[in-house]
Amino acid sequence: MNYILQKNSVPQFSVDGSGAGSGIGNEVKNNNLGHEINEKEETINDIYMLIIGYIIIVSFGSWFHIYFRNIMPNSVYYTSIIFVIIFPLILYSYYIFYQINDIREHKTYDEILSKARYEIEREEKIASIVPVILFGVGIVYSNIQSKTKTNVNLLQLSSPYLLFSLMFGTIIPNIISYLIFDNNNLKRVIVASDYDFISVSISFGLMIVSLLVPFMTHYNGYYKEHSK
Asked: Do residue 48 and residue 81 come from a single domain?
């Protein structure tokens, strides 16, 4: 006998003999609203999104470091690879495997949907803070540039990080949020949350490097000069 969960949440039995021996609730889980969650399908979707995220992060990171390589000192270049490529990959991997764990813990449709909505709301709050941080960083760097004497143009070096951090941290997440259309569709909300997280992760990596740039260029040169 095969145990089936129907949409009205009333358990029934089939006598066709198919699926004998399969575990109860391993493939199909549902709540009282009639929404079904297929564990295998959702896990495959998460792995698919993991691969897409890897492609996006590595592709952007490779292009960014090739295109702006001529303005990056070696210390900035290698640090940038760590935070713009490797750091987002680690964050996104953790995020996806956390999602897979939620599915395997047999959480209901509503629980997963609520968590995905919460993630999007949190990412939107982060997106609203990013411009303020970057604007303040730009002002501080202008002052540093005017008061120190080094061969490195701080604003020229940090501008790509600041601009792309703004794009990935604010513009893209807002566009994704507007394109969801149906906030009750779990797949749409999860995919939007995934893309939001990819974008914000890249933004964080870019922002971290932009904050480290003065220490790897201006202040490092200043300390070397005054330690002689």
From this structure: yes
Residue 61 is predicted with a pLDDT of 96
* Torsion (CA) 12, 13, 19, 21 in degrees, nearest 10: 100
> 114 lies in which domain range?
38-226
The answer to whether residues 109 and 131 belong to one domain is yes
Q: How far apart are CA 135 and CA 52, in angstroms?
A: 31
pTM for the model: 0.72
Q: Which positions of the chain have pLDDT values less than 50?
A: 1-34, 222-228
The dihedral region occupied by 9, where left means phi > 0, alpha psi between -120 and 50, and beta the remainder, is: left
Residue 166 and residue 204 in contact, taking contact as beta carbons nearer than 8 Å: no
For residue 29, the cross-strand partners are 37
**pLDDT at residue 93, rounded to an integer:** 94
CA atoms of 68 and 152, how far apart (whole Å): 14
The rounded Cα 124 to chain-centroid distance in angstroms is 12
The per-residue pLDDT for 214 is 81
Helix (H) or strand (E) holding 22: none
Distance of CA 44 to the CA centre of its chain: 19
Overall domain count for the chain? 2
- 8 Å CB contact between 197 and 119: yes
Q: Are residues 23 and 93 in the same domain?
A: no
pLDDT of residue 112: 73
- Residues 44 and 157 occupy one common structural domain: yes
